[in-house]
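TASK: fixed-backbone design
INPUT:
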C-alpha cells in the first residue's frame, strides 16, 4: 500500500459526513413539523401485509448499509494505492558459462556423452549466455557467448552425431573416419607433436569471456582427462592462476570415478577447486544434476544479495468492489423503494 494513511482518512471523512447529514436531516424534519398521529390506525401494525412490508424494509435497509459499507471501504483502499511488491533479479543476465571440451583422441569415446550432458545442462538455463569451445593442440570456438539455446543445442547435437558415427573402436584401439577428422581438423597438430594441451585449452576458454571491465559471473565447465602430450604455452597450474585472476570459476567433468583417481585426475581436481569450482565424474548419471545444482545454488546466493524491490499498481480489485457496492446500493434504492 503506497498511501496507507489515506484509508483511515477516507473512512473518517465518510463517517463525519454521514453523521452530519443525519443530524441535518433530523433537524430539518423537526423544523418542518410534519410529524403527527393518525387516529384509528393502530390495528394496521398487526396485519400480516404490514408486518411483511416492515420486514422487507428492514432487510433492504440492512443490505443497503452493507453495500454502502463495502463501497466506502473499497474506495478507501483504492485511495491508498494498493501495489504488488516483488524482488526483481538481474543476475541471470550477467552470468556467462563456457563449455570447454577436450577433443583429443583419449577423450573422443567420452565426448558424445559429454555433449549430451551439456545439452541437459543447457535445458536448465534461463538468461545465461553460453559458449562452446573444442580444443586439442589448438582451440576452436564452435559458438561464442550467446543465449540462443536452440542454436547451441543443435551444435552440440551435431557434434555428438559426428563423433558417434565417426568413431571406430576395434579391440582396445580407437580410430576415426575421414569425416570425423575433417570435423576436428582445426584443433589437430599436423605433425602430431602435441595433443590434449589442457593449459592452452583452458586459457583459450578463459579468453572467450567478453566485457572484462564489467562485474559478471563467469564459469567454465571443463571436460578433460588431463592427459597432456607435449608442451604448450600454459600448463594447468598457470591456466588456473589465469582463471583466478579473471574471476573465473572452473568446474571439471572428468571421465572416470573419483574413487580411484590417477595422478592426472587428482591434479585436475585439486587445481579446479582453487577457483571455487568442483570435480565430477562425467560418466556418472548424477554428474549433470550435481553441476546444475551447483550453478543454481551460486545463482540463488547472488540473487539474494542483489535483489531490487519493485512495485506494481494493483487498483483493480479495490475498484471492482467499489463498483459492486455502488451498483448494489443503487439497485436496492431503486427496487427496494427506500
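OUTPUT:
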Amino acid at each position: 500500500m503506497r498511501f496507507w494513511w489515506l484509508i483511515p482518512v477516507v473512512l473518517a471523512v465518510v463517517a463525519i459526513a454521514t453523521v452530519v447529514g443525519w443530524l441535518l436531516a433530523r433537524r430539518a424534519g423537526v423544523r418542518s413539523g410534519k410529524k403527527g398521529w393518525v387516529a384509528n390506525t393502530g390495528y394496521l401494525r398487526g396485519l400480516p401485509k404490514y408486518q411483511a412490508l416492515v420486514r422487507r424494509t428492514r432487510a433492504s435497509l440492512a443490505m443497503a448499509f452493507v453495500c454502502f459499507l463495502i463501497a466506502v471501504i473499497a474506495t478507501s483502499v483504492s485511495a491508498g494505492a494498493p501495489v504488488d511488491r516483488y524482488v526483481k533479479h538481474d543476475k541471470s543476465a550477467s552470468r556467462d558459462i563456457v563449455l570447454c571440451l577436450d577433443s583429443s583422441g583419449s577423450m573422443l569415446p567420452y565426448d558424445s556423452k559429454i555433449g549430451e550432458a551439456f545439452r541437459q545442462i543447457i535445458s536448465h538455463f534461463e538468461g545465461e549466455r553460453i559458449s562452446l569451445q573444442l580444443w586439442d593442440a589448438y582451440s576452436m570456438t564452435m559458438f561464442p557467448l550467446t543465449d540462443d539455446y536452440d542454436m547451441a543445442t543443435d551444435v552440440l547435437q551435431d557434434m555428438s552425431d559426428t563423433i558417434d558415427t565417426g568413431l571406430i573402436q576395434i579391440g582396445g584401439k580407437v580410430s576415426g573416419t575421414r569425416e570425423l577428422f575433417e570435423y576436428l581438423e582445426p584443433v589437430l597438430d599436423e605433425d602430431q607433436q602435441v595433443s590434449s594441451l589442457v593449459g592452452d585449452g583452458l586459457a583459450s576458454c578463459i579468453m572467450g569471456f567478453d566485457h572484462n571491465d564489467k562485474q559478471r559471473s563467469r564459469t567454465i565447465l571443463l571436460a578433460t582427462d588431463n592427459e597432456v602430450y607435449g608442451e604448450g604455452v600454459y600448463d594447468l597450474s598457470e591456466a588456473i592462476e589465469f582463471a583466478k585472476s579473471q574471476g573465473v570459476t572452473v568446474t571439471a567433468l572428468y571421465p572416470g570415478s573419483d574413487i580411484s583417481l590417477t595422478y592426472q585426475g587428482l591434479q585436475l581436481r585439486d587445481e579446479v577447486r582453487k577457483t571455487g569450482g568442483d570435480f565430477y565424474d562425467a560418466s556418472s548419471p548424477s554428474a549433470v544434476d550435481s553441476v546444475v545444482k551447483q550453478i543454481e545454488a551460486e545463482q540463488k546466493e547472488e540473487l539474494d544479495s542483489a535483489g531490487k524491490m519493485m512495485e506494481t499498481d494493483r487498483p483493480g480489485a479495490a475498484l471492482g468492489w467499489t463498483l459492486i457496492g455502488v451498483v448494489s446500493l443503487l439497485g436496492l434504492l431503486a427496487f427496494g423503494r427506500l
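COMMENT: The chain is about 50% helix and 20% strand.
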